[in-house]
């Protein structure tokens, strides 16, 4: 892809301005604002449907390349105390995760052009001190002892400007017989002096210039308790500095940084009298257990002093930080909906999707809640390239479109919360301030089932397409709006329609939706595996979300013991189910099984013949098979599917209307949180839990919930020019839900 | 996933079943064979590149190394996903059994 881009916001109201950042490797490109209706390329389906919306932003622009610099670090701005160092001691606790991956800077004060300064590094898998005289000469002193991955070390280096001696300490915190990974080296260096410079002090990387792409020696692993002193310290004094600054060292200490302060922020605090504070860049992981974690406390709020580590990764990215190329002030008359800035240059194309919300007070009766938190969790996922399981999960070869090929090569675009970092640790933060190339119309995903193969954003365009085709008037709102605006966002609406896979919810989102239901709001759950993971949004940094993969649930990585609490909020992470709020509490059904090959139909159950549910099945035959067709796996029940379960919170008066039980392949397997004891027979042809249960129930104040309980449902809506029983049921429910007549008075 | 099951001539019966329906409901015997061949780790794993979406697929192969481009076999082009499945099944069958499937 020669053209990619992102916007500063995910949604805007009329009168608000969105900014677009574009990377274009061609001389010029054309931008047009389009209303997105359907993004499915499958010729069996409705086809691509979009309408150009005339706006002042629609025109030709000059292209320019914009790149992303991944890799996280801490930056402490330069100061006279840092710049004037002659002799020094630098020390830290270290947990390297990839000691053999090239040279990695733990602490650096370096100016590359003149080769001036110092850096405590890992080089060839060993601790080393890199010194530069400012005249182009570099000397490296190494312990020559191999560091082990994922082991804590005390590391330190000092340099005596008078004697020109460098000293290194590499001290493992665990001794393993027959393993020789400890080293102490003292060596006289040939350099006449260590040059000074005006560079920032950095932890976790070294900068070789001021522009982008100038980050080098990116470190993978944890750093805890870095210290800097202005003279050579004895080993005993280094030990004292671990826990504070004793009076006799106050003159010597330059900085004692405590990463356990302000864990929820990007601030980095120097607790020494010098107050040389700094910031994290590109969101390294915080709330990470430190070298002194005892295992007694699992919560960083309870024992912050044991969570003084930051985990740095060479592929962390937060804000791509690109220059703005054009902006759009949403016209007053532009109706709410799903839109995109369509970028084209020759055969190259990208879309930057965004939502136009209604002006306040101009809301319609129906809103489609776009699950943008889930898009962020999946943003730029690499499951088909990083792990071998995709073909097993989907029972077919993994398809790669141009976006997937690009993401495989451009790791600097960052991963999703389904990926692992290059060092194997889980990606717990995801940002939308970067191009998200799987949140695009026309995108084909390896997860999306045989046929159209759509997942998340593009699958959700089957819903906007159906709403348009059926002539429903609707607004579009997003998860992020729900998080920040709460119940007030939902209150004007008679009906909320979910996306196909609304999996991720913050506490604010969860509470707002529950309050909406309790006040008579009606929810149509158009998907499955919804309201599953708890997430947190960053308190200060926009467009940034956190997921901790705790305890159980279908997950592609597992949080380390002791790291189950969100760093952004201090809230316990993981499945809502494990916090007493299983999806059944919100939707009547919850995640029960998954498989990604073909889908199955539903058959009606006795509940569907009760008078309370008659409106759902108007025009549907008694024995009619429901949804034995569709663009997603050829059926309406598929991919991820949910079941009713009173023990988990399905209300006792719920009507189970239909089920897909017995129709699924053995690629479909029961979710792991159901497996207390593993037994044979977990697949779709054998296990009763492998099913999508369609349900209906009334809620307080005259409201109701209807759940399809299948991600594939929306892929069947357009079959036979929208004249089919999946479309009819959806239509029946929506019509009734839009009718203000209370279900129960 | 590395499976311990070894595909052998005893599995010959499933070849016909696979060729008749590469994607969908399979017998337990065929599923066991597919678990072996589809469970291959990412290094040298076959994938399908959508060279013309929903019209034309080109055989690709992952390198297993992050950032390395997917290898593309430009002479291996398919007009349907099922044809691609059959060809790749044939290649893997040969690899596992040393015989033509």
Structural overview:
The complex is a heterodimer of chains A (745) and B (101). Chain A is mostly beta strands and 745 residues long. Chain A folds into 3 domains: 3-68 and 323-349; 73-312, Jelly Rolls (Sandwich), CATH 2.60.120; 366-738, no CATH class. With 101 residues, chain B is an alpha+beta fold. Chain B has helices at residues 13-20, 28-38, 81-97; strands spanning 46-52, 56-61, 71-78. A 3-stranded antiparallel beta sheet of chain B has the order 1-2-3, covered by helices on one side. Chain B is globular, with a radius of gyration of 14 Å. Classes of the chains: A mainly beta (745), B alpha+beta (101). Chains A and B meet through helix 4, strand 29 and helix 6 of A and helix 2, strand 1 and helix 3 of B. Strand 29 of chain A pairs parallel with strand 1 (46-52) of chain B.
Annotation keywords:
heterodimer, A: 745 residues, mainly beta, Jelly Rolls, 3 domains, 16-stranded antiparallel sheet, elongated, B: 101 residues, alpha+beta, 3-stranded antiparallel sheet, 3 helices, 3 strands, 36% helix, globular
- Oligomeric form: heterodimer
- Backbone structural class of chain B: alpha+beta
Helical amount among residues of chain A, as a percent range? 10-25%
Largest interface: A-B, 35 and 36 residues
Spatial order of the strands forming the largest sheet of chain B:
1-2-3
Q: Runs of chain B with pLDDT <50, length 5+?
A: none
Strand composition percent of chain B: 15-25%
In short:
Chain A is mostly beta strands.
List the helices and strands and how they pair.
The complex is a heterodimer of chains A (745) and B (101).
Chain A: E1 3-7, E2 11-12, E3 17-24, E4 28-38, E5 49-53, E6 59-62, E7 73-76, H1 80-83, E8 88-96, E9 104-111, E10 116-123, E11 126-133, E12 138-146, E13 153-160, E14 165-172, E15 183-188, E16 201-203, E17 206-207, E18 215-216, E19 221-229, H2 235-241, E20 253-258, E21 267-270, E22 278-281, E23 285-288, E24 309-312, E25 326-329, E26 337-345, E27 348-356, E28 366-370, H3 372-377, H4 383-386, H5 390-394, E29 399-400, H6 402-409, E30 429-431, H7 457-470, E31 475-478, H8 479-485, H9 487-490, E32 495-497, E33 504-505, H10 507-518, E34 522-525, E35 533-537, E36 544-547, E37 574-575, H11 583-587, E38 589-594, E39 603-604, E40 640-644, E41 655-659, E42 669-670, E43 693-699, E44 703-707, H12 725-738
Parallel strand pairs in A: 2-27, 28-31, 28-32, 32-34, 33-35, 34-44
Antiparallel strand pairs in A: 1-3, 3-25, 4-5, 4-6, 4-26, 7-16, 7-22, 8-13, 8-19, 9-10, 9-16, 10-11, 11-12, 13-14, 14-15, 17-18, 19-20, 19-24, 20-21, 21-22, 23-24, 26-27, 30-36, 35-36, 35-37, 38-40, 38-42, 39-41, 41-43, 43-44
Helix pairs in contact in A: 8-10
Chain B: H1 13-20, H2 28-38, E1 46-52, E2 56-61, E3 71-78, H3 81-97
